[in-house]
Design a protein that fits this description.
heterodimer; A: MetI-like fold; B: Rossmann fold; 8-stranded mixed β-sheet; 12 strands; about 30% helix; globular
């Protein structure tokens, strides 16, 4: 018997899925624009001008100096969009990262050490009884408004959800016979936890976290929309949508463009999350 | 002379907790006062119907479950008293092969990783020669070296079971508990695995505790058989003796109840009636009395002790009294079992070539 062809690495299989490829490209472009904001922004995103509420270039009254038009204070929409995306992504990534790691660890621990389970889960239940928005309001009241408190609030709000999901995934993994096989080999708890439990739970948890990323961006934008997040004149997508609200009838682009961008980011993150699960789970390989 | 593995009075009860306060309202008596020996290169089969505690015996003696009572000694070392660290060392000597070849391998680890793990853990290989040792192991268990880079889901059931055997074999253990290792496989693959296990035993002198409900496979594997009913050994005898002259009525019904390989064939004798009683609330006296054709008043009140009878040990009040009518060996077995044996025999012969 000869060895058959080895299986392609996961990223090669990922880009064979057209939806995932598109989502990945879109997210990549958005992230690059966000990172490169200071160099590619055509105007100062904070400087007002007299060209107030100029429509985008595809409108008859638009012009190429302001491709996506200007907002109610005459600031260039495109430049603000670059900077706004940057802040939105940072808030989403950092808070999901912190909350996801903490929550997953708690959930895995609860499954690995059944003794901890009641304590962890009651703690999680208490946390779950606070809506994220309320938690954000309370934290902002204590810490003052700004991106930092929003990140902390969103991270804390992510912990219980992630802990629950991680626990339910880990509990089903712990019931598998290979956990017992690992014990029978004489593996240390550390090795069992990382090589057996974590490794078999991580991809499902990652899918949840990547789906959670979309939700968190939405909640973060909502907090900014309510005026609790980043302070003006900083740009943030939710805040930009809020500022456009007053001009919705005369200059809809000011609210619509950032909203559409939020939608695209969340959708791309979800599609990519689903596709990642499909390629990272060896049982789904065909 | 003491045997390699000595199990004495092994007992495992699972508490049943109810209500908010998790009060203990009862015990499932999964294993009760089980004692047996396994010598070097010997196979002791543990047979019984589903839920009788066979698997619990295997897991408890490996300390994968904490026993309620009893002792286990391997080469004179008491296993149950070892500290956690010493127990990890001891696990090198005692391994387990699982029933489910789909669930017992870590799906995220390649075969190479799975097999390298015990080797590196117990210092049996270094980073440099581990690949070679893994390849040797694969070869010993009838797999190809290029299988090393594969994940478990890329294998068939029989191949996975070989990987499971290779993993158990990696540490060169003294004892392997085989928990229904062939029950999930079809007959020709069963034959391959039985052959493999026997070859490995001959080569390395491993003692097997072979847990099974399949009397045909047990006939091929075991040198001695212990029949378990409701957590207790009811009969233990050398394999020929047990099949030729089963002394306990439960053993007789088990042999009569062997599955028929030919669906057109009818079972001559009715197998045992009724269900296994609850281990939470076992019957008084002899646990088998509600289903036993020989049951008398004495059986309801007095539990028969396991006692020596020639080369066998039997727990039945009438073990001596029962006249052994059919002494002429094989024809005593049910036709069904004989056919099952023939099928397995033929498959083993075929797989050898």
């Amino acid at each position: 018997m000869d060895a058959p062809e080895p299986i392609r690495p996961w990223w090669q299989r990922l880009i064979r899925d057209p939806a995932a490829l598109l989502a990945a490209v879109v997210l990549f472009v958005i992230v690059v624009c966000a990172i490169a904001a200071p160099w590619i922004a055509p105007h100062d995103p904070f400087a007002s001008s007299r060209a107030v509420m100029k429509p985008p270039v595809w409108n008859a009254r638009g012009d190429w100096a302001y491709i996506l038009g200007t907002d109610g204070q005459g600031r260039d929409m495109l430049s603000r969009l670059f900077y706004g995306t940057r802040l939105t992504l940072i808030i989403g990534l950092v808070s999901v990262g912190i909350g996801g790691v903490l929550g997953s660890f708690l959930g895995l621990l609860a499954a690995f050490r059944p003794g901890f389970d009641p304590f962890v889960m009651r703690f999680v239940d208490i946390m779950l009884s606070f809506p994220a928005i309320l938690l954000g309001l309370a934290l902002v009241a204590v810490l003052g408004p700004g991106a930092g408190p929003v990140i902390i609030a969103l991270a804390i709000a992510s912990v219980p959800d992630c802990a629950r999901i991680a626990r339910s995934i880990a509990v089903s993994v712990m019931k598998q016979e290979y956990i017992e096989a690992g014990r029978a080999l004489g593996l240390s708890n550390m090795a069992l936890f990382t090589r057996y439990l974590l490794r078999n739970s991580i991809s499902s948890i990652m899918i949840f976290i990547s789906l959670r990323f979309g939700q968190i961006i939405l909640i973060g934008a909502a907090l900014s929309f309510l005026g609790l997040g980043a302070r003006p004149p900083t740009a943030e997508l939710g805040m930009m949508a809020a500022q456009g609200r007053d001009f919705l009838l005369y200059a809809p682009h000011i609210a619509v463009i950032p909203s559409v961008l939020i939608f695209v980011i969340v959708l791309a993150a979800n599609v990519l999350g689903d596709a990642l699960r499909d390629v990272l789970d060896p049982r789904l390989r065909s | 002379m003491s045997a390699m593995l000595e199990v004495r009075n092994l007992t495992k009860h699972f508490p049943i907790r109810r209500g908010v306060l998790r009060r203990v309202v009862g015990n499932v008596q999964a294993v009760n006062d089980v004692s047996f020996d396994v010598g070097e290169g010997e196979t002791l089969a543990i047979v019984g119907e589903s839920g009788c505690g066979k698997s619990t015996i295997g897991r408890t003696l490996l300390r994968l479950l904490t026993p309620t009572g009893g002792t286990v000694a391997l080469d004179g070392t008491p296993v149950m008293d070892l500290s956690d660290d010493d127990m990890r060392q001891m696990r090198r000597q005692m391994q387990i092969i699982f029933q489910d070849p789909f669930g017992s391998l870590n799906p995220r680890m390649t075969v190479a990783e799975t097999l390298a793990e015990p080797l590196l853990l117990h210092g049996l290989a270094t980073r440099d020669d581990v690949a070679q040792k893994v390849a040797d192991l694969l070869e010993t268990c009838g797999l190809q070296p290029w299988h090393a880079g594969r994940f478990p889901h890329e294998f068939s059931g029989g191949q996975r079971q070989r990987v499971g055997i290779a993993r158990a074999l990696a540490t060169r253990p003294r004892v392997i508990v085989c928990d229904e290792p062939v029950s999930a496989l079809d007959v020709s693959v069963q034959a391959q695995i039985v052959n493999l296990l026997k070859d490995l035993q001959a080569k390395f002198g491993i003692g097997y505790v072979f847990i099974s409900h399949d009397l045909a496979v047990v006939r091929h594997m075991a040198s001695r058989v212990a029949v378990v009913y409701l957590g207790r050994i009811v009969e233990e005898a050398p394999v020929e003796e047990l099949y030729a002259t089963p002394r306990h009525p439960y053993t007789r019904s088990l042999i009569a109840a062997a599955p028929r390989p030919d669906p057109a064939m009818r079972n001559v004798r009715a197998p045992v009636q009724g269900d296994l009683p609850s281990a939470m609330n076992p019957p008084s006296g002899c646990a088998f009395h509600p289903r036993c054709p020989l049951a008398q008043d004495r059986c309801r009140s007095e539990r028969p002790e396991l006692r020596q009878l020639g080369k066998a040990r039997v727990a039945c009040h009438f073990a001596e009294a029962e006249p052994v009518i059919e002494t002429a060996g094989e024809h005593r077995q049910s036709d069904a079992l004989r056919q099952r044996l023939a099928v397995l025999e033929a498959a083993r012969e075929k797989e050898k070539t």
